[in-house]
Specification:
Low-confidence stretches: none
Oligomer: single chain
Helix content: 25-40%
Structural class: alpha+beta
Order of helices and strands: EEEEEHHHHEEHEHHHH
Strand order of the largest sheet: 3-2-1-4-5
Number of helices: 9
Distance between the termini: 60 Å
Length: about 250
């Protein structure tokens, strides 16, 4: 049986960190090679630490790791992209934190199948950092992450009766995973209203490339409707409320 390698390299995005022991830091990453990974940065909380600046949330990093007794230990760290505009604008910070929270909540450690989310998250952070209005980048990300995780919502046929949806206002059912036609919606509990305009944009985000989706310009009231619906759907799937939508709301109101 081959012996496990003593050290290895990964490219990853820092999802979060926490204090660990007297001077260390526990760093959770989404990596290209090994999915979600918890690591230890020895001495990262010391003032003179050279690693600390590379291990802040949102940072895209290349790491050299050594096998530890419990968790891999970061021995070298190099920033690939710090996405600096995310740190200079509270709204962009909020959107980026939301993207990280979603992928963090839906993934498990050592799930190598989660590596496909690494590229999606890196692309999304880049778009949030550079687009004039990052709202659309976040909605596109939501659709892609739902598809990747097997929760692609039904938006072209009624999730209850399977009939093709007409160009009219519909309902949305989180428990059934998609749009509900007005005929079925009259007798089903727990539905949310879904306007024909919001449905049109949701369909567009679902079936388009980002370049195509970026041409959409929904009115502010439709943006709010879509955002509220998506937050509600993710809350249902996770069976718990998300933290970052509240922060985003306070930033907008402030």
């Amino acid at each position: 049986m081959p012996r496990p390698e003593r050290s290895f390299r990964v490219n990853g995005i820092v999802l979060r960190h926490a204090d660990w022991g007297e001077a260390d830091r526990l760093v959770t990453l989404l990596t290209r090679e090994r999915g979600k990974l918890r690591t230890v940065a020895k001495g990262a909380r010391r003032i003179k630490s050279r690693k600390a600046g590379h291990l802040e949330p949102f940072t895209h990093v290349a790491l050299q790791l050594a096998r530890g007794r419990d968790l891999p230990i970061i021995t070298q760290a190099e920033t690939i992209d710090a996405y600096l505009p995310l740190r200079d604008d509270l709204l962009r910070t909020g959107y980026a934190a939301y993207a990280l929270e979603l992928v963090d909540r839906f993934t498990y450690e050592d799930d190598t199948e989660a590596t496909g989310l690494y590229r999606l998250l890196a692309e999304t952070l880049g778009r949030i950092a550079t687009e004039a209005d990052p709202w659309l980048a976040v909605r596109f990300y939501e659709m892609r992450i739902l598809e990747f995780l097997g929760f692609r919502p039904h938006l072209f046929r009624c999730a209850n009766c399977r009939r093709e949806l007409l160009a009219e206002d519909q309902f949305f059912s989180a428990s059934m995973g998609g749009a509900i036609c007005p005929r079925c919606g009259a007798g089903l509990p727990g539905l949310w209203p879904l306007s024909v305009a919001a449905l049109k944009y949701l369909r567009h985000f679902q079936r388009s490339s980002y370049a195509e989706a970026a041409r959409a310009h929904p009115a502010p009231e439709i943006q709010k409707e879509i955002e509220t619906l998506m937050h509600g759907y993710f809350t249902y799937l996770l069976e718990r409320a998300l933290n970052t939508p509240g922060f985003l709301k306070s930033v907008r109101e402030g």
